[in-house]
Amino acid sequence: MRLVLLGPPGAGKGTQAAILSEKLGVPHISTGDLFRANIGEGTPLGVEAKEYIDAGRLVPTELTARMVEARLNEPDAAEGFLLDGFPRTVEQASILEDLLSKQGVSLDGVLNFQVDEDVVVERMLARGREDDNEETIRTRLGVYREETAPLIDHYGDAIINIDAVGEVDEVNGRAMDALSALPR
Q: Which of 45, 80, 103, 110 has its CA 20 to 30 A from that of 134?
C-alpha cells in the first residue's frame, strides 16, 4: 500500500505511521528521518542538506525529492510505503507523482489526520518541549494552512479523512477501517 500522510503538526501522524507501518508491513518514510540518516551516514545528499541546515535555511525541494526518490527505490519500499513530511506542497506532490509514474505505480490514498487547532496547541504544549510555546505552535499551524493544506484539494478523491481526536488505538482503528475499505 502506497500512502501519503497529511495533517497539522501535533495531529499524531508520526505515532500513527509507526503503528500503520507495522500493521501494513510497509516502511514509514519520514523526511526528518531521511535527513538525519543521510547526514549521519555522510552521503552526498546528506552533505548537501547539512550545508543548508547549518546555515539555518530550508533544504530545497529538489534535494528533498532526490532523498525521497532514493529511499523509494530501496527494496523494502517496492510493495508500498507511508510517506510522512513529503509532499508538503502542491509542487512536491507533482514531483512525487512523477517519481511514482517512473516506477509504474501510484498512490493508493492520502490519509488526512484531522484535528482542531486548539486541540493541537494543547497536545503540543503538554509535550513540554522547550521550543513548543503557543506562539510558535500557532505559527507552525499557519505555515501548514498556507503550504500544506492545499494538498487536500490537490488530492481530491484520494483523500481519506481520519478523525485524529481520541486515544491512539481509536484513531488507528479509524485509519485501518478506512484503509480496509479501499479497493484492492
A: 110
